[in-house]
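Subject: Re: docking follow-up (zinc ion)

Dear J.,

Thanks for your patience while I sorted out the input files. As discussed at Tuesday's group meeting, I've set up the holo structure prediction with zinc ion included as the bound ligand rather than trying to dock it afterwards. The sequence and the ligand SMILES I used are pasted below, so you can double-check that they match what you have on your end before we go further.
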Amino acid sequence: MTQPPTESDLEAYLNEALTPPEMASIEAQLRSSPQLPQRLARILSRWDAGAHSLGDIWRRHRISCASREELGRFLLGVLDDAHARYIRFHLDEVACRLCHANLLDLRRNQAEPDPTGRARRKKYFDSGAGYLQGG
Ligand SMILES: [Zn+2]
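The structure tokens for the complex came back this morning:
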């Protein structure tokens, strides 16, 4: 006899966070039980409705790319754990090329915050105009 899956079983199923035998068991029950697909649909619509817990945010973003802002905060280490874990997963496991490119770009920007501004400032001082500012 098989126990009907709990809510968190189904959430884990949607997150592909179960072991293969557990996934197979729920898939089998999905085919035989008319209630299960409805329960899954309810969970999905709840996630889409924009619940605000960290877990929900993590789940919702799991399948999508991180924004530049998220990646920037990831680099600074100021994201919350769940969020940072998601981005690490997205980069390492999903190996998303777009996000890797974005991250590389951001890293370069952080190493050299404003190269054009610096060059412009140097020119300004070289021209002697800097002295007028009391420098
Ligand atoms: Zn991505």
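A couple of observations from a first look. The CA atoms of residues 128 and 135 lie 10 Å apart. The radius of gyration is 24 Å.

Let me know if you'd like me to rerun anything.

Best regards,
T.
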